[in-house]
Amino acid sequence: MNILGVDPLLAGDIGLAVTLIVLLKVVVTFALLLVSVLFMVWFERKIHADMSNRLGPNRAGPFGLFQTLADGIKFFFKEDLLPDRADKRVFILAPFLSLVPAFLVFSVIPIGGNFSEEKQGAVRLFGHDTFLQLADPPIGVLLILACSSIAVYGVMLAGWSSGSKYPLLGSVRASAQMVSYEAALGMSVVAVVLLAGSLSTHDIVMSQAGEGFWGVFPHWNLIVTGFVPFAIFLIAGTAEMNRPPFDLVEAEQELVGGFHTEYSSIRFALFFLAEFMNTVTMSAIIVTLFLGGPAGPTFFGPDWMWGPLWFLAKLFIFLFLFVLFRTTLPRFRYDQLMDLGWKVLIPLSLGWLLLLATINIARDEEWNIYLVVGIGFVVLVGAYALLTAAMRTAELRRDELEGVSD
């Protein structure tokens, strides 16, 4: 059973009560994610409108809260088009390959619990101890990375199966972009796993719970890893989600509408839903890996109540941050986007990961930690200088060859 999960609910015999609790957690997780996506669409429209001196949704329901629901109903009744040159089976399957991984990722996210030394994140539910997350497999982080990689196939197959060159160009660009940033994102996650000593999302949250440094600063991986992996993960995650300023996958002036140009009705709605769902799940992942998830102090009332409140508060910060990116930052050129991924984020994430690993070894071997950190920074600066010199030399040679050809 430990292979399937380490939730105390699954530690003993699995009877009818345990099965019903698991089904309840499935329904609640599914409902929470859908409601959060509906809220996210309305929230992004409202914030974007406020920053653009517009009203935003204000007709359907109070403050326009039902506007997203009205749009969903509209998509259901719109005509569903299927291009003549499309590969019909792949064309129909592609939206689900983008949507389903987002659901699977959210299933391993802890959204509550008492993360004290006594409770270890467990809560009492109908006479059984359980975690407030749908599943806690020992390889939860690997599941997150695998699902984020699967989403690439949905984008690529959507463009290829449409039978049109513009969606194909958009899907090729999306695949290259997502693969480029997957490496940097993965190495920033490895830095967290290295310090937590576990691939379980629950264990990662537990490693960040407690009083923290000097009883003032929390023991978040944001601080423990030195902020750099967090910054890399935030940038790489934004690029992988194809959100501004990295939304070149659907650059209207270049590709009409991107990989989903030929989609309409409910199938287009699935891509639209997947984009905003990925925003929620990516924010939840950042909160879990770097900001302690639902772990936080309790003040009054039931101790289990504060976990979801802390999680929602942290989640809201990043949802607002992603909207802020959309409203304020100009879109990158594609060459700038790829340069940032391959020439900056990947070398930086690799170098910082090696530095953290060296510090861990130094701590275990009882070496002089200050000397190790100093030497490590010198090596990183030297490696950066060599990399910059190599790229500069390559640019000069390319300019020379272009000059000769002209």
Task: Provide an overview of this structure.
This protein is an all-alpha fold. It folds into 2 domains: about 10-355, no CATH class; about 370-405. It has helices spanning about 15-50, 65-75, 90-105, 140-160, 165-195, 200-210, 220-225, 230-240, 250-255, 265-290, 305-330, 335-365, 370-405, and strands spanning about 120-125, 130. Strand 1 and strand 2 (about 130) form a beta hairpin. The chain starts with 15 loop residues before the first helix and ends with a helix. The model is unreliable at about 1-5 (pLDDT under 50).
Essential attributes:
406 residues, mainly alpha, two-stranded antiparallel ribbon, disordered N terminus
Strand order of the largest sheet: 1-2
Number of strands: 2
How far apart are the first and last residues' alpha carbons, in Å?
68 Å
Helix content: 55-70%
Largest sheet: 2 strands, antiparallel
Uncertain residue segments: 1-5
Mean pLDDT: 85
Rg over CA atoms:
23 Å
Order of helices and strands: HHHEEHHHHHHHHHH
Query: Could you say which overall geometry the principal axes of the C-alpha atoms support?
Result: globular
Layout: helices, strands, pairs:
Blueprint: H1 16-51, H2 67-77, H3 88-106, E1 122-125, E2 128-131, H4 140-161, H5 165-196, H6 201-208, H7 221-224, H8 228-240, H9 252-255, H10 265-290, H11 306-328, H12 334-365, H13 369-405
Antiparallel strand pairs: 1-2
